[in-house]
Design goal:
The chain has eight helices and seven strands. The protein is α/β, with parallel strands linked by helices. A seven-stranded mixed beta sheet has the order 4-3-2-1-5-6-7. α4 crosses α5 and α7 crosses α8. It is globular and about 50 Å long. The protein starts with a strand and ends with a helix.
Length: about 170
């Protein structure tokens, strides 16, 4: 499974309040959340992002509260993957649980610029910057986590497991 999209860059320490501001947490409707994704970091992001686009950020992406709304808002607004130098651990797990591909690559986070066209192969841990003609390695996703991603998240994975074992 590979994906291709435009890079949207953000700095270090993007917390869950920047991803989905607390003032919108009166709903858990994914579409409502998506309309406000990243708006405190970039007010025009929800209107400009296109399906398959890729968020690229510095270190500690997703820090702050453990709310699952953050990766859900990102996925629902159409972002295909998030590449960062590092992730907050709870965000990392929540992202996989809802089927959002995330890759850790300090080199990619440093070299990619806003608007670069990227191609990502999450399973292989490879990020290609088609605009710059560069490739970056990402930390490999463990096979079990790759299965969760391929199933669209933890619920899909468990449903498949029950069906296959039943």
């Amino acid at each position: 499974m590979s994906m291709r999209g435009k890079a949207w860059t953000f700095k270090d320490d993007i917390d869950t309040d920047a991803i989905i501001p607390a003032r919108y947490l009166n709903t858990s409707d994914p579409e409502s959340l998506a309309r406000h994704c990243m708006e405190d970091a970039d007010p025009s992001f929800p209107e400009k992002v296109r399906p398959g686009d890729i968020i690229v950020a510095g270190k500690n992406f997703g820090c702050g509260s453990s709310r699952e709304h953050a990766p859900l808002a990102i996925k629902t607004c159409g972002v295909g993957a998030v590449v960062a130098a590092s992730f907050a651990r709870i965000f990392y797990r929540n992202a996989f649980n809802i089927g959002l591909a995330i890759l850790e690559s300090p080199e990619a986070a440093k070299r990619i610029r806003a608007g670069d066209e990227l191609e990502i192969a999450p399973g292989g841990g490879l990020i290609r910057n088609l605009t710059r003609g560069e490739e970056y390695a990402a930390t490999a996703i463990p096979p079990f986590m790759a299965e969760i991603l391929a199933a669209g998240g933890l619920i899909g994975y468990l449903q498949k497991k029950v069906k296959d074992d039943g």
